[in-house]
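Hey, can you fold this?
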Amino acid sequence: MTCKERMDAVLRGQPVDRYPFVPSIYEHGARVIGQPPGDVCLSADLMAEAALKSWETYEHDLVTVGVDIYNIEAEAFGCPVAVGVENGIPGITGHPLEAQEALDVSALSVPAPGPSNRLQLIVDASRRVADELADKVWVYGCMGGPFSQAVELRGFENLIVDTMLAPERVHALLEKTSELCLRQAARFGEAGCSVNIFESWATLPLIPPDIFGAYVVPYNKRVIAMVKERFDVPPPAVIMGGNTALLMDHFIECGTSLVVADYNADFDFMRRKTEDNGMIVRGCVDPKQIERGDWDGVRDAAGKLAAKAQGMRNFVWGCGAVSYGTTTEHLLTFREICLNLG
């Protein structure tokens, strides 16, 4: 089977020749092409080269395009971004709406692609990758989610207080961040690829399920529904860590195609929730174990995942974000462990 055929089958709950291998490759792609992550962040050509060379190296079953995947939309809205130190990736250093005593988004406009931001840069990189690979493998552009963008603009603690004291103002902010997501997701769709929506700030236990349901689900659902309706691309996914099993009903309501789970997750529960609704479960091993070559730990975690996933037709192998410091040899060893188990 090709990578695309394998993922299509898993999404439909049909038998495959092996469980797909879906590591999270972002800044690690810069290492694969021998470039600093900070340089790759600023070049569509290097970003595309990193994704293409990574797929040539690892033949993973889902390709993502992006490096500092949480920053681009927030940066376009006005969040300052620091250059990565040495081989680190850039990061948000300030929150433009943090100083407001009462949240006010009336002056905040939804940014368009232009020379002062990287909205078009990542789309151009994704288009090149999709042009070369979309007939062979699922290709996804990366985008910060509406809630996580809102956190970067307002600051986490302020935004949580706002949900209690001024919920209508939070929804007004989310209307603007989700509008950017809708426009950016449409650009990815027009480029021939799908979109991963990263909601790292919505992870449990950072926020409780009721805030997730009220302030994360409606806006991600809107983006996912638009992509599914307008574009013939793989289905979008909401990506986040934490105890995702506690949020399964919310993920189902969102319509996400993939949910992340580590080896401690309740797979029996996730199996019951996901097998009949077209959702993929990505079992994840700790990427720090892979980076340092802790193969006893990796085999133990992967073995537990394999046992829990026994008989699942919607399971794929994965790990958290592979670091720049992880060697190619280590990730290939992890790949071999996974494929030998499944």
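Oh, and this one too while you're at it.
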Amino acid sequence: MAEFSLISYTPDWAERWDRFITEGSKNGTFLQTRRFLCYHPADRFQDTSLMIAAENHELLAVIPAARSEADGELRFRAHPGSTFGGIVLSKQITQAKRTLEIVDALDQFLSPQYAACELKLTPQLFASSPTATLEYALFNRGYTQETEIACYLPLAGTDLERIRAGYSATKRYELKRCERRGLTFRRLTTQAELDTFYALLCQTLQKFDATPVHTLAELTDFMVFRLKDEIRFLGVFDPAGAMVGGACLFYFTQTRTLHTQYLATDNRVKGCAPSAYLYDAVIRFGLETGAGKLSFGTSTFEHGHVLNEGLIQNKEGFGCLHTLNRIFTKRY
């Protein structure tokens, strides 16, 4: 077996870690950079991230991770501060055998310390290179798989007219009603606009007994400092200027993928359903800004075991295609 060094992450590695994610990896995104992960307070998670290096000290993989404890057992799990984590693999790892050796090295390091390992891989939709060897290696080494279904729209090489032709008759009707009602959309840029959007988001999620993952202060930090090049906010307005819908969007540069992190609407608006206009506005914004793909996120709960049929049917009404997110778990 090849010799690897497994190194526990410390802040001294932050710059090299981020350079590997953005320049040297095949499936790293800004969500796995320290620039993003470090917005969390230091005591929120017990960071147990690892780096795997070759004998010449070249980084071959990094694993953003945290320690969790449940039912009296310790787990090594994908970093809770990121939508996905798992193994972020070097572009130089192209052979299946080499990938298997990396998984073996990780298992040998973790098994004396943890009862289980849980990895949520970067979906192929956001990966700059194929990662089939990584998924195979995890399967081959005894990891079980859970699968979430997500929706996306290809935007490259098409236009709004062709995309709208793929809307269901119901969505086209709802959109026309919104247009007749005089709804408009624009990008949000001020703190006051972000405050209004966040209040609308909380109102939307309250119907499902949920709250936003991010606080208003964190979204403000993203907009003005930490993610100013990767985050966008849109607002939908009625003719009186009241915000009746909004979106928080993440942009993944390496794959030109625009992702809907949060969508919120005020469905008390009379005469139309602002959600139809909001989806269409996000699609138009993606086309106008040159995005190649538009991700509408997952439509499942409990690691994919429960399908939200209403949610996925709503996305399918806009002509969305499907992709999969995979979660791999192994008990030691």
